[in-house]
Design a protein that fits this description.
alpha+beta, about 20% helix, 6-stranded antiparallel β-sheet, 6 strands, elongated
Length: about 120
């Protein structure tokens, strides 16, 4: 009986190590690297509203009424249903240089983030 218990303990230990290894090796979503032109000067005050354009683009309006377009390097899952997002930086020293957004735990990096002229109301 003692031998069976030791064998079961050994099998359980090996199973735990294998599970830990497999969990560590699981693929992790990594956002595409930001290019140099993404880190640009854009005077964006507090965001007042934003509107979904397509899977890779949103238009943003700040509290002063200026409009901006955020285009992403790839389709951003959940963008069409988003009610909020967080702006992110690559580095804690670049708190004023946003390189993307976090949406539902995923990072979507900017392809372009620039001021635009608002389209006329219909």
């Amino acid at each position: 009986m003692n031998t069976i218990n030791r064998l079961l303990a050994a099998v359980a230990t090996v199973a735990i190590f294998i599970a830990g290894y497999l969990a560590f090796m699981a693929p992790v979503h990594v956002a595409p690297p930001a290019t140099d032109r993404l880190i640009q000067m854009v005077e964006l005050n507090q965001i007042a509203s934003f509107a979904h354009v397509d899977a890779r683009t949103i238009d943003v309006m700040d509290t002063t009424g200026r409009h901006f377009r955020m285009e992403f390097t790839a389709a951003c899952p959940g963008l069409s249903d988003a009610t909020m997002f967080s702006l992110v930086t690559e580095n804690y020293r670049d708190l004023d240089k946003f390189t993307g957004i976090v949406l539902d735990g995923r990072v979507c990096t900017f392809k372009d983030f620039s001021p635009i002229n608002p389209s006329p109301a219909r």
